[in-house]
Design brief:
This protein has seven helices and seven strands. By secondary structure, it is α/β, with parallel strands linked by helices. The protein has a single domain, classed as Rossmann fold. Strands 3-2-1-4-5-7-6 form a seven-stranded mixed sheet, with helices on one face. Helix 3 crosses helix 4 and helix 6 packs parallel to helix 7. The termini are far apart.
């Protein structure tokens, strides 16, 4: 049976996915930023929230493109996440420690320009993501979303790598761009803009 949350991702996991992550993960980050740049999403003073950010590697790549962006993130362990962040952004990030569903139910970043979710929803239970998507659509309503997640045909429930009901987002968002990840065709990338 699959483990979730802190059982699946203990504090030590942060070292694998932050600034010192393997090259493949850095290429994933660069790919996401390339798509955002190609569609002129990164703007002065924009507000960016990364869900399940760990060491905020993706946020660092966005910040490198425009140092005026305001950065927000969440993950299970703030101290261990901050230890794996690039020194340039460590103090710039407003961090929410805790389970993503709880954060999205109990908090809200106002006037959110971009919500970034990369390889995170796939590690959460079906009902959790369903509840988070409901909250995104009803309360958080970011201007843009960029999602990189596992495709349905590569779902592995025992890992867990779960595929979710992402089509729900299309009720209130236009799919601006989609492609398979350059690193592996097992993952899709969606860029969405609020209708």
């Amino acid at each position: 049976m699959a483990n979730f949350g802190k059982k699946r991702f203990p504090k030590s996991y942060q070292k694998k996915v932050g600034q010192n992550a393997r090259e493949l993960l850095h290429k994933n980050s660069e790919e996401l930023v390339e798509i955002l740049k190609d569609h002129n999403v990164i703007q002065d003073d924009m507000t960016v929230f990364e869900m399940g950010a760990a060491g905020a590697r993706n946020l660092w790549y966005i910040w490198k493109e425009n140092k005026s962006v305001k950065l927000y993130a969440n993950d299970l362990f703030e101290k261990e996440s901050r230890e794996q962040m690039h020194n340039d952004i460590k103090e710039l990030i407003t961090f929410y420690e805790g389970d993503s569903e709880n954060i999205f139910n109990e908090s809200k970043v106002e006037n959110l320009d971009l919500l970034l979710v990369s390889d995170h929803f796939m590690h959460l239970q079906y009902e959790k993501v369903d509840n988070i998507l409901t909250k995104i659509l009803s309360d958080w309503t970011p201007q843009y979303m960029i999602i990189r997640e596992v495709k349905k045909e590569y779902e592995a429930p025992d890992h867990p790598k779960l595929f979710h009901k992402y089509h729900r987002l299309l009720d209130k968002y236009d799919l601006v761009y989609e492609r398979d990840s350059k690193q592996t065709d097992q993952y899709f990338i969606w860029l969405l803009k609020r209708k």
